[in-house]
Amino acid sequence: MPPCQGTTAATLVDTSGGAGSLVPGDLLLLTETASPETGHPADARAERRHVVRITRVLPAKDVLCPALALVTVEWAEEDALPLISSFNRG
């Protein structure tokens, strides 16, 4: 399900190898990776991007796939997502 307008958090796959590459204060670029209308990556719109300043980073676990490392990042209300889209960490 794509994130909704006003969202202030996201859970991402942690590819840092446990080093915790994201920290509060970092800027995170979210880019559309698939069209919310069709679900197809080829229909993603490059102009749908949004930068947020991370305020909190928390490790997370996937109960169905415990080996998958996840991290939940949060950002302030003033950086809330302005549109509905399917995003990817940039």
Could you characterize what this model shows?
By secondary structure, the protein is mainly beta. It has one domain (about 10-90). It is built from no helices and five strands. The chain has strands at about 10-15, 25-35, 50-60, 70-75, 85-90. The chain has a five-stranded antiparallel β-sheet, with no helix packed on it. The two termini are about 20 Å apart. The model has no long low-confidence stretch (mean pLDDT about 85).
Features:
5-stranded antiparallel β-sheet, 90 residues, single chain, mainly beta, 41% strand
What order do the helices and strands come in, and which of them pair?
Layout: E1 9-13, E2 27-34, E3 49-61, E4 69-75, E5 86-89
Antiparallel strand pairs: 1-4, 2-3, 2-5, 3-4
Kindly summarize this structure in a few lines:
The protein has no helices and five strands.
Q: Give the total of domains.
A: 1
Any idea what the shape is? globular
Tell me the strand percentage band.
35-45%
Tell me the span between the first and last alpha carbons.
Answer: 19 Å
Order of helices and strands: EEEEE
Structural class: mainly beta
**How many strands?**
5
CA radius of gyration is 13 Å
Total number of helices:
0
User: Describe the biggest sheet?
Assistant: 5 strands, antiparallel
